[in-house]
Amino acid sequence: MNTQVTIAGVTLNNPVMTASGTFGSGMEYSDFVDLNRLGAVVTKGVANVPWPGNPTPRVAETYGGMLNAIGLQNPGIDVFAERDIPFLKKYDTKIIVNVCGKTVEDYLEVVERLAAEPVDMLEINVSCPNVKEGAIAFGQKADCLYDITSQIKKKAKQPVIMKLSPNVTDITEMSKAAEAAGADALSMINTITGMKIDIHRRKFALANKTGGLSGPAIKPVAVRMVYQAAHAVKIPIIGMGGIANAEDAIEFLLAGASAVAVGAMNFVNPYATVEVVEGIEAYMERYGIEDVTELIGAVE
Amino acid sequence: MDSQIIQKKKMKAMVVSQKQIAEQIYDMWLETELAQDARAGQFVAVYPHNAATLLPRPISICEVDREQGRLRLVYRVAGKGTAEFSAYGAGDTPEILGVLGNGFPTEQAKGKRVFLMGGGIGIPPMLELAKELEAEKHILLGYRNQDLFLQDDLGEYGQVYIATEDGSVGVQGNVMDIIRVNELHADIIMACGPMPMLRAIKKYAAEQGIDAYISLEERMACGVGVCLGCVCRTKEIDHHSHVHNARICTDGPVFEAREVEI
Question: What is the domain extent for residue B57?
Answer without folding.
Answer: 9-100
